[in-house]
Amino acid sequence: MDTKLTLNVDKTIIEKAKVYAKSHKVSLSHLIESYLAAIVSKSSKRIEITPLVESLSGVIDLEPNFDFKEDYTNFLIEKYK
Q1: pTM of whole model > 0.70?
Q2: What domain range includes position 41?
Q3: How far is CA 60 from the centre of its chain?
């Protein structure tokens, strides 16, 4: 059963969404309905962690203030020297 919904959205966003929907040969209503269905179903799903991944959890001890981005940046600098 379809129900009418009124939304207030920025005009430029609507225009871009219409172009996107047209290029993908779907209606804007269907596009929004699909998006809403996707986010609703994602929130109800729980990611299952395999026993192997669970066994690896906590194997490495890192400092509380460890900076992952800085470490990865340093790795890339060394890699591409």
Answers
A1: no
A2: 1-45
A3: 27
